[in-house]
Design brief:
The chain is α/β, with parallel strands linked by helices and about 325 residues long. The chain folds into 2 domains: about 40-130 and about 255-325, 3-Layer(aba) Sandwich (D-Maltodextrin-Binding Protein, domain 2); about 130-230, Periplasmic binding protein-like II (D-Maltodextrin-Binding Protein, domain 2). It contains 11 helices and 10 strands. Strands 1, 2, 3, 4, 5, 6, 7, 8, 9 and 10 form a 10-stranded mixed beta sheet that branches. Helix 2 crosses helix 9 and helix 4 runs parallel beside helix 11. The longest helix has 29 residues, at about 5-35. The termini are far apart.
Length: about 325
């Protein structure tokens, strides 16, 4: 039986109209059924660091809420790019997700080339953050951040240990240089632990490190002198340390944060479901107590709030990258 040209046209128009509706229905069904199997969280750093510890707390709590295992898969390399690339190229079905950090924003600003575009990953939810702590050797003559910055302006300046180009300590140094005229020469090391060793050994005048790493050296061992924390609020586990903002350095604002990003195209309903699960996990009293005891501030929140945070960080850090010429040559 042959259809007339008019009938074919009418059928085509109906199918065209139904297409988006069918796609939306399929996405809704996928979200309703999600998760129906284990979720893999790619952590783009080695086990044991702040990003990894926050990821494991989020995985444990979200697993209870979602009713499926949330498995941690550490894939370190290239400042977080190796793991991020895996997720950027994964199926957007909510089963392969990235535990993101500041590098997901800043790497493309700094590196000469990237294996994926920024929009290949979309923000889902914040997990938490470990404020950075600016530290110097215990016997250093500086008692606050202003003393340190003013002393650095004399002579050749100070060497400031970092965990490599674009790391949080690198941004701390350049924020102080660009905004406040400090003379800090970033000295790249392979990791935060090597930077810490360099400060303890007197090879450099100072560094900044995640609270979870720095606090044991300050509180338990007394090997470091802490000058300031670089987030907007004091560290719950060490409230006697004032923020850089409180000391007059309002533009020194950065933390070692962890969130979750998903491949582009992941249904919004899945992202919202994930965000709600992580938010609930970050408000669990036992989790809050555990993380705050380590110097980590649990955050959680909505997807919208995390998108707003990521966009603000992109703008703010981008200005520092340009002003300090942080791009790889």
């Amino acid at each position: 039986m042959f259809l007339s040209r008019r009938s074919l046209l009418a059928q085509t128009l109906v199918l065209s109209a139904l297409g988006p509706m069918m796609a939306a229905t399929h996405a809704t069904q996928a979200a309703d059924n999600w998760p129906s199997r284990p979720i893999r969280l790619i952590v783009p750093f080695s086990a044991g660091g702040a990003n990894d510890l926050m990821a494991r707390s989020a995985a444990e709590g979200a697993s209870k809420v979602l009713g499926q295992p949330v498995v941690i898969d550490n894939r370190p390399g290239a400042g977080g790019t190796v793991g991020a690339d895996m997720v950027a190229k994964a199926q957007p079905d909510g089963y392969t997700l990235l535990v993101s950090a500041a590098g997901v924003i800043s790497n493309s600003m700094i590196k000469k080339s990237m294996p994926f575009k920024d929009d290949a990953l979309q923000p889902a939810v914040m997990i938490g953050l470990a404020p950075s702590v600016i530290v110097v050797p215990k016997n250093a003559p500086y008692n606050n951040l202003r003393d340190f910055v003013e002393a650095s302006k004399k002579g050749q300046g100070f060497n400031f240990a970092t965990a490599g180009t674009g790391s949080t300590p690198h941004f701390v140094a350049e924020m102080l240089n660009v905004k406040y005229g400090a003379k800090l020469q970033p000295v790249p090391y392979k990791s935060g632990s090597e930077s810490t060793t360099a400060v303890l050994g007197g090879q450099v005048e100072g560094t900044s490190e995640a609270s979870i790493i720095a606090l044991p050296h300050i509180v338990n061992e007394g090997k470091f002198k802490a000058l300031a924390t670089t987030w907007t609020q004091r560290i719950s586990a060490y409230p006697q340390l004032s923020t850089a903002m409180e000391q007059g350095f309002a533009d020194v604002q950065i933390a070692h944060w962890a969130g979750i990003h998903a491949p582009k195209g992941t249904p919004n309903a899945i992202l919202d479901k994930l965000a709600a699960a992580v938010d609930q996990a970050m408000k669990e009293p036992a989790t809050v107590e555990k993380l705050k005891g380590l110097g980590i501030e649990p955050v959680g929140g909505t997807r919208t709030e995390f998108v707003k945070f990521v966009n603000a960080e992109r703008k703010r850090l981008g200005e520092i990258v340009k002003a300090a010429h942080m791009q790889e040559k």
